Amino acid sequence: MFRNWRHVKIHLNKVSNQSSSTLSFYQYGYGKQKSLLSSPTIVLILLNVLVFIVMLASGDAGDCSSSTCQFLAQENDLVLAGAFWQLFTSMFVHFGFAHIIFNMFALYYFGRLNETTFTPPKFLTIYFASGLLGSVMTLVLLPAATVSGGASGAIFGLVGSYVAVARRAQHMGVALIYAVLLFVQSSLLPGVNIFAHLFGLIGGLVLGLVFSAGHESPGYSINYNYQA
Fold first, then answer.
1. Which of 74, 185, 214, 222 is deepest in the core (most CB within 10 A)?
2. How far is CA 50 from CA 46, 57, 176, 207, 228, in A?
3. What is the spatial distance between Cα 13 and Cα 6, in angstroms, rounded to a whole number?
4. How far is residue 15's CA from residue 28's CA, in Å, rounded to a whole number?
């Protein structure tokens, strides 16, 4: 069968902008152990849980009655009065166990998906920029007496960037349907800040498209090189 072949080389190549290079399993962490703290997703989850524990210790029962919550959560009237840090710190505030459990599950799922595509700096840029956009639009569109908090705006940024990557992978339809279903399911509940979700999603989609420009989704091909 291989009578006229001197040798057959089988290369498993990663389909990317470096499609000619041989796949390195270490690129994805295979074959070596990595610290949990090397994952931006895990670090963000730990920070959110830490803030939640501090709020519980300060006597907060999920109603933002503690001084800790009132300092960290976004109160539009206080932000307008100069408490601009709340636009950022509110991303780490959660009102009750159900709120943080749902958000941390979504953060882990979409965070780990995005980590396979974006470097930590780009990942964190998507996360915090989307969350801040949601906070700013909450300030602009909701009444001054509004109190809001949660990582959901930033998490929806990760949903948006995932949709952008899926578009590059020619699975835009499935990813978009999934994102819309998640948005509707989580945004139509009483007391949920739909504007943080919507603009977080938009921000993540735009940044995902920008950061993934020229990047193809991971895939694999087998090339057979032979000489007669």
1. 74
2. 6, 11, 32, 28, 64
3. 22
4. 14
Cβ 197 vs Cβ 150: under 8 Å: no
Tokens (6 digits) for 52 = 């939640």
Q: What is the mean pLDDT of residues 171-197?
A: 70
Mean pLDDT of 93-97: 92
Which residues have a catalytic role annotated? 152, 197
Q: Tens digit of pLDDT for each residue in 135-159?
A: 999 999 999 999 999 999 999 999 9
Q: Is 224 exposed, middle or buried (0-12, 13-18, 19+ CB in 10 A)?
A: exposed
- 26-211, CATH topology level: Rhomboid-like fold (1.20.1540)
CA distance 204 to 159: 7
Contact 179, 163 (CB under 8 A): yes
Q: Is 147 in contact with 138 (CB distance < 8 Å)?
A: no
Nearest to 113 by CA among 126, 100, 102: 126
